[in-house]
Write a structure and sequence with these properties.
Two copies of one chain form a homodimer.
Chain A lengths: L1 E7 L15 H4 L3 H9 L1 E6 L9 H8 L4 H4 L4 H7 L9 E10 L5 E3 L7 H11 L10 E6 L4 E7 L29 H22 L2 H8 L7 E8 L7 H5 L3 E4 L3 H9 L3 E3 L12 H14 L2 E6 L1 H7 L3 H21 L5 E7 L2 E2 L6 E2 L3 E6 L22 E4 L3 H8 L9
Parallel strand pairs in A: 1-10, 1-11, 2-15, 8-9, 8-10
Antiparallel strand pairs in A: 2-14, 3-4, 3-6, 3-7, 5-6, 11-14, 12-13
């Protein structure tokens, strides 16, 4: 037996006035999702805990069966891992933005006009020569997509108990990074990061790429904003816990990083971009193919979350309908006599607030030995009447692995 | 007010192709169970946690209100207690099998042809004279039913952190018992057990009973396989927690041992055997009678689990129908104005896999002040729609004791 877990990122929503107080899932045309719900067993999940809005990283940890409250150690390491950097246990990692500041370090644009990859790459290259004054600490810096980048601090006596330099909004000054506890390590690390921020700025502000950008009327990428200090979480790989081979099909580096930490294989899929224009069918094909070799496959689609953050209701509905056609392909091609297919969301993202919200998400599992229920439609409200009741996100993985006969009996 | 808890061991199942994708409970003729469900309040329970297959011992601990994850300390002590041995806090106990090995210690039959009690008793008697080389350690050995036996190691400096000698399958060699941690005690205990295993074998292989067995064409019981090292769990008796008098009606020694540990009275019922041929009515009568004296009575029927482990679907349905007639007697004879009657299973046992599975179990409670719901049939899927929702196993006991007014208010 195998298990496929399909996650529509931020696919759940609240009822919207624009949709006659229905949710995007409720109004979307989704025959395959409804089929899954009607032959399967449904429920709702509090991914972290009732009312708590999950991050994308903690949500994925929970859906892989980990207790995120206990194991989460910041976002940074997942970003670095997801981008292919080999992260060490002692590394402290950051999610970074190329951004634009004025001469008083006031943030004018947190994304430096969503700088193109080519410009960002040249700027990143120029930062490599920088030396940190502390002799035993090195850094790795890599631009990823557009304004996004990762920073890895490597050495001994480092701590992730430090604050962000990213103020989170324009119109505020770049923040001084401060230790968040009394340790020598936190003070030491904060000092290094403030030094690096200054040195990055000195090189960036004079860089020819930025002079060209200004000449073209684009905002210069003259600062690196840091946030989400994180270390590798101490978790057992899925393979060790359940004795299964596990594969991740996802484009978003944060999700890839979490799956990598859990010991999963990462597939690269042509045309999978983490945007609304991603190649849904290529991902579906890759997932079905991965099921030949792996016992457990996670298929993550970022698009509904992107639409929700933009408050784009119409796009969210369209994207859900595309996921439904992706699911149709999967239900046609997968060996359904041998496969448990599960559909859920990692969190509710509200098209009104544009934020992750703590409302529960719908869940449907179909497969040979599920106890099917009366639910005939996949949605936030219909699934709440299902046979699974209300679960926690971290319960899903043992439930799936139990169907695969991979959960050890507790007791005799 | 009183409470009767009826546990059908392994009574829940997954939908079975042979039953038109219904479960044995769903197809069984069970008017009394359905009556209980329709006048009562229903729900489903994860006995340990969602997806986690419970053992019979951890499941019973949970159903008695204990947090099995915290208190469980192995199977052995329950087996010994259930057989009537007075177990001390410092004892380390084992579930044992009389088994058959060849000259290379390869296991040929893990049950020595399900050796008859009379043979096993004579063999057990001959082992009593053995002396352990460690001067301060003694052992008690008792055959129980057929090939089953218990071993209690008594002395100071003993540890239960040791591995089994039972390889669990035929065709493998008897395992050397090894310490599972770095302690002196674990190493010491493992040494004693390897010595005992050798000394048992030396006596058994030359024993006249075994020579007669071989002459009759039966496999000789020439080794004792050990597993499930356990000590008494540190738990408060039910009487102390809730101030109730509690009684157990069960034939299976493992279940009797758990109930004994929880401070319950153990009833011996004529004809109660722990098999499909057990005297259901005698158990029902004993339970109703026990309710005159006790506030809480647990009535355990092993039969559905036995049928499931054998993959015998027809027998499982029949056994459920017998339990239904047992319930009919109880509903006729008990004082229903004064009694909460509860029916559930301790775990799902699949007739397909023959194993305990982590799927939830159905639950129904009837009694004067329950908030009845719309459920009209007792089953895995119908109960999922009930008014109790989805509970954990350890929640049931406080719920029942609350109806009896026996749960202390928390706060002022």
């Amino acid at each position: 037996m195998k298990a496929l877990l399909i996650i529509g990122d931020g696919m759940a929503d609240r009822p919207l006035k624009e949709l006659g107080w229905k949710t995007p899932l409720e109004v979307a045309r989704k025959p395959s999702m409804n089929h899954l719900a009607s032959v399967g067993v449904c429920g709702i999940m509090d991914i972290i805990a009732p009312g708590v809005p999950p991050g994308s990283d903690t949500a994925t940890l929970a859906l892989l069966g980990y207790d995120a409250f206990h194991v989460y150690s910041g976002r940074g390491a997942f970003e670095a891992l997801g981008w292919g950097i080999k992260v060490l246990d002692s590394d402290v990692c950051f999610r970074c933005n190329f951004a634009t500041i004025d001469e008083n370090f006031m943030v004018l644009d947190r994304r430096a006009g969503r700088i193109a990859d080519a410009d960002a790459a040249k700027l990143a290259e120029s930062l490599k020569a920088i030396k940190i004054s502390a002799p035993l600490v090195k850094f790795l810096f890599a631009n990823t997509v557009q304004h996004r980048a990762v920073l890895v601090l490597r050495g001994s006596k480092l701590s992730s108990a430090i604050s962000d330099s990213d103020p989170g909004t324009v119109g505020e000054k770049v923040l001084e990074i401060k230790p968040l506890d009394e340790s020598v390590e936190a003070k030491f690390t904060a000092g290094i990061l403030n030094e690096l921020t200054q040195k990055f700025h000195e090189i960036l502000k004079e860089h020819p790429v930025n002079k060209e950008r200004v000449a073209r009327g684009q905002p210069p990428a003259n600062i690196i904003l840091l946030r989400g200090a994180g270390t590798l979480p101490k978790i057992k790989p899925i393979g060790e816990i359940y004795g299964v081979d596990a594969t991740c099909v996802a484009a978003t580096s944060l999700i890839r990083g979490v799956c990598k930490t859990a010991g999963m294989h990462l597939l690269d899929v042509e045309g999978a971009t983490g945007t609304a224009q991603t190649n849904y069918m290529a991902k579906a094909k890759a997932a079905v193919k991965a099921l030949e070799k792996s016992d457990f496959v996670l298929l993550h689609v970022k698009a509904p979350d992107v639409a929700s953050h933009d408050g784009n209701i119409k796009q969210k509905v369209e994207v859900i309908e595309k996921i439904d056609r992706m699911l149709a392909y999967i239900l046609n091609k997968a060996d359904l006599g041998e496969t448990y297919v599960t559909l859920t969301a990692d969190h509710t993202t509200s098209c009104v607030t544009g934020n992750h919200e703590g409302d529960p998400v719908p869940l449907a599992i179909m497969g040979p030995y599920v106890r099917g229920d009366d639910v005939e439609e996949f949605g936030e409200r219909t699934c709440a009447k299902g046979g699974l009741g209300r679960l926690k996100g971290k319960d899903l993985m043992p439930i799936l692995m139990n169907f695969l006969g991979k959960v050890k009996k507790f007791g005799a």
